[in-house]
């Protein structure tokens, strides 16, 4: 079977895949134009959605596409076909996302940035640090990644509340709520963490009304999708001390334009969409597992319902 790899890291993916599956005929590149002729002979594609979308627009149709991203928004455009199997990256982001969130939550409790500023000013900073124990963490998005994060945070003695489209009893969350309950749930949270995917229901979810219901001591972290946040409203909330701070990994436009107010907003830290990168090793293992399922005619992990958008 011929497999097309279309990704910025195509060389690494190709090396890993050919080492594990020497019988595969692999075509790899990072330019849709350069792989166009070969793509028509490859029923299976492994690649990043933005590049795959460009190739689809050139009239080439795969049988199955394995996305190297968890998000597949570029492939949901109305002008693109949806008559092929699409699987998104699942099961490989839980630990890296947990490490990202833990980094900034602990930095917040230990007042890392404030101590750095004190050192720059030659001031001895002996303020007592906080602790995660007993903090109320609201994870908005309790899917596969959210559950992995919850299990990691549970070891620190936090109080966990999850938000899901269909609330149900889910370990290790102490309680679960629906998206419609978010205005009430944010009122008692010390950390509000957005992990929601990009769907019509999640656009502009975090607006001024919601920020005003949060505790002034709360930290807001967005590691889900940029369009979940009304940018101007977050800026206003921070400028008016309605929040202790914000960690923003994802933005509506990336890279963030030079004129965007986020660059100068007080107590807002940008992390450049680095929260949960795709690690090629685990990604290739997921692809190999799904490839076996594909050959056997079995359900694949992370299959996308185009109607739902995930």
Automatic annotation (TrEMBL):
<dbReference type="Pfam" id="PF02826">
    <property type="entry name" value="2-Hacid_dh_C"/>
</dbReference>
<dbReference type="GO" id="GO:0016491">
    <property type="term" value="F:oxidoreductase activity"/>
</dbReference>
<dbReference type="GO" id="GO:0051287">
    <property type="term" value="F:NAD binding"/>
</dbReference>
<keyword id="KW-0520">NAD</keyword>
<protein>
    <submittedName>
        <fullName>Putative 2-hydroxyacid dehydrogenase</fullName>
    </submittedName>
</protein>
<dbReference type="InterPro" id="IPR006140">
    <property type="entry name" value="D-isomer_DH_NAD-bd"/>
</dbReference>
<dbReference type="InterPro" id="IPR036291">
    <property type="entry name" value="NAD(P)-bd_dom_sf"/>
</dbReference>
<feature type="domain" description="D-isomer specific 2-hydroxyacid dehydrogenase NAD-binding">
    <location>
        <begin position="103"/>
        <end position="275"/>
    </location>
</feature>
<keyword id="KW-0560">Oxidoreductase</keyword>
